[in-house]
Structures are given as C-alpha cells and as structure tokens.
Design goal:
single chain, 253 residues, alpha+beta, 8-stranded antiparallel beta sheet, 34% helix, 26% strand
Length: 253
C-alpha cells in the first residue's frame, strides 16, 4: 500500500506492505517531530527560537545539537560547500534534517520487522535492502511533468546503495548559498545515489554549490553516482549512473 501525507513543506510517500499499516502513525510522528523542532517557518520551533535569539545552541536539546554537529562535520568534509550557517549567521539545518527524518523512519520500519518498503519525501528516496530493483524517475528541471531518465536502486545483489537525493533550483528557485551570497549555482539540478540518505542529500547540495570541481572531488572520495544538469541544459553523469539509467547512453555525456 502507498500512504501519502504532507510534511516539512513537501509531500511524503511511503510504500509498505498492507500488513505493516500499523507503522503509519509512528512514521508520521517522526516527520512531524522533526518539522516541529527544526522548521524556521514555525515561530515556536526550537531552531526558530535560536534564530530569534531566544535560545542559545548550548541550551538547545541534545537532538538539535546532534544534528548541528553532524552538519558541521559535513561542512568540513565538503570544504564548506555544505554548511549549516547562512551568511547572516542564522543556523539553518534544512539541508540535513529531512534526510535524517527519512533515515529515522527507515530505521523504525526495519526495527519493526517491515520489509520491501520505500520512503520518498520530496524526491529524496530510501529503499529497504529487500526492496529489489525498481526504476525511479528523475524529474526534468525544465519541465516538472517530464522525466530526464529513470534509474534503479539495488539492481544487483551486491549493490548496497539504497538512497537517492536530488537538489537544485528547479522547484524552489536559487536557495543555496554560494561563497557567502545567494546567486545562481553552476548546476540547476544534481541527483546523487549513495549507501545512505544523509550522504546522498548532503552531497547533492554540495555539488550544486561547488559545480564540476566538487563533483570530481566528491565522486573520487565517496562511493556515489551522480547525474547533474548545468544551466545550459547539458547532462553530466558518472559511468555508474549511465550504466543504471533507463535512457539511451548517448543522452548522458
């Protein structure tokens, strides 16, 4: 069965077996609690109170400080292309907490004995290791009703990569800070396939910000595959992505 609900400013879609329907209330709570704590649009959220100067990071909850520390770690690993800080000093954890919520929901399903599930939140996808191969469509950044291609997660028994995340300006406009200012990024959309959803989501954002140099650096350092679309509409894909994509090889450069 498929369960769809609004959360964190987007839409979540969770595919589970009918026998696992009992898990749905707990899954919705996972996303609601993350949104209640981290949304900068909720006037009483913990992160908003930090932004407004009503609460200090040192007095924040262990949960918030753990996410902040994790984001800081990724800032170092990506040479600053991913950061939990806006140039105005506001702590913004939007780039990591959605992936953490997906990660938490996946752990809840696994620990609950559920198998073969898929979690899709705003195009960021995590599948169960027993999911099997299923094509996942990548939206065309110039036409939300069209697909660039499809790609399979878990196509091989030895393929441990269960996560796919897409970042860019197609749906939300230019919202990623580059070098201390908000300006058009080198890539309009980047999709990353990785072992885990946090790595996929963070690196998709960092490659949007860092462009071709970051793409080359990160694909050399992490076991990921990437599809990127630049502002001219040209596609750049790693060999692994080309091999798993449901398009003609000539369509990907």
């Amino acid at each position: 069965m498929r369960h769809v609900f609004a959360t964190m400013g987007t839409v979540a879609s969770i595919d589970i077996a009918n026998d696992d329907e009992r898990m749905l209330p707990a899954l919705e709570r996972v996303f609601d609690e993350v949104d209640q704590r981290f949304s900068l649009y909720r006037p009483r959220s913990e992160l908003r109170r930090i932004a407004d100067g009503q609460l200090t990071l040192t007095d924040a909850s262990d949960t918030l400080r753990a996410s902040y520390a994790r984001a800081l770690g990724w800032r170092g690993l990506t040479d600053g292309h991913f950061s939990p800080h806006r140039p105005d000093g506001v702590v913004d954890l939007n780039g990591i907490v959605k992936a953490e919520a997906i990660e938490q929901a996946g752990r809840l399903l696994t620990n609950g004995g559920c198998r073969g599930w898929t979690i899709n939140v705003g195009g960021d996808i995590l599948v169960d290791s027993a999911h099997g191969s299923r094509p996942i469509g990548i939206t065309d950044p110039t036409d939300a009703s069209a697909l660039l291609c499809s790609v399979s997660l878990g196509a091989l028994p030895t393929d441990t990569r269960r996560a796919l995340a897409t970042s860019g300006s197609a749906q939300r406009g230019d919202h990623i800070w580059l070098g201390g200012e908000l300006r058009p990024a080198p890539f309009v959309q980047v999709t990353v396939i990785a072992d885990d959803i946090v790595t996929a989501d963070v690196l998709a954002t960092a490659i949007v910000a860092g462009g071709t140099r970051a793409l080359d650096q990160f694909t050399a350092h992490w076991d990921i595959d990437v599809l990127a679309v630049d502002r001219a509409g040209d596609l750049v894909a790693t060999p692994g992505f080309r091999a798993g994509a449901g398009v003609a090889p000539s369509a990907l450069h």
